[in-house]
């Protein structure tokens, strides 16, 4: 097999696109979106439930893994910085998280609802649950 063919096969098998190959905005990438959703959900729970705390090292490590994923998927440092500073996308994600939490009984002023959701996430071993611990 020729070197170019080997490189192409390796890229396809690893599922890693080269630099500049990212077609969709970073905030629309499903892996990134789901990751930030999990981080946001965990943050809302820990801020509203006094019996649940964040796993800060895990959260930082997970955030860095999302950054690595984005770079390996062909997004640039500028794309990552643009996402960090995209207040409109942050607001949309926060609204979705709050709506989902409310549908599960976690509404402002209802710590018990947030604690219930947090314990469910922890018990199910979701990404958000892995970022939390019961005090």
Shape: globular
Tally of distinct domains:
1
Kindly state the number of beta strands.
2
Q: Strand share of the residues?
A: under 5%
Alpha carbon gyration radius: 18 Å
Q: Number of helical runs? A: 7
Structural class call reads: mainly alpha
Order of helices and strands: HHEHHHHHE
The N- to C-terminal Cα distance equals: 57 Å
User: Roughly how much helix do the residues carry, as a percent range?
Assistant: 55-70%
Query: Average pLDDT across residues?
Result: 86
Major β-sheet strand ordering: 1-2
Question: Which regions contain 5 or more consecutive residues with pLDDT less than 50?
Answer: 3-22
* Biggest β-sheet strands, sense, barrel: 2 strands, antiparallel
Any key phrases for this structure?
globular; 67% helix; mainly alpha; 135 residues; disordered N terminus
């Amino acid at each position: 097999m020729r070197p170019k063919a080997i490189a192409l096969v390796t890229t396809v098998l690893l599922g890693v696109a080269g630099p500049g190959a990212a077609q969709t905005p970073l905030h629309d990438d499903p892996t990134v979106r789901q990751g930030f959703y999990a981080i946001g959900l965990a943050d809302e729970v820990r801020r509203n439930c006094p019996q649940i705390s964040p796993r800060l090292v895990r959260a930082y490590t997970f955030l860095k893994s999302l950054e690595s994923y984005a770079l390996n998927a062909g997004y640039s440092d500028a794309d990552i910085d643009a996402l960090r500073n995209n207040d409109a996308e942050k607001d949309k994600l926060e609204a979705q998280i709050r709506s989902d939490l409310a549908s599960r009984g976690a509404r402002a002023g209802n710590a018990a609802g947030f604690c219930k959701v947090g314990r469910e996430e922890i018990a199910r071993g979701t990404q958000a649950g892995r970022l939390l611990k019961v005090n």
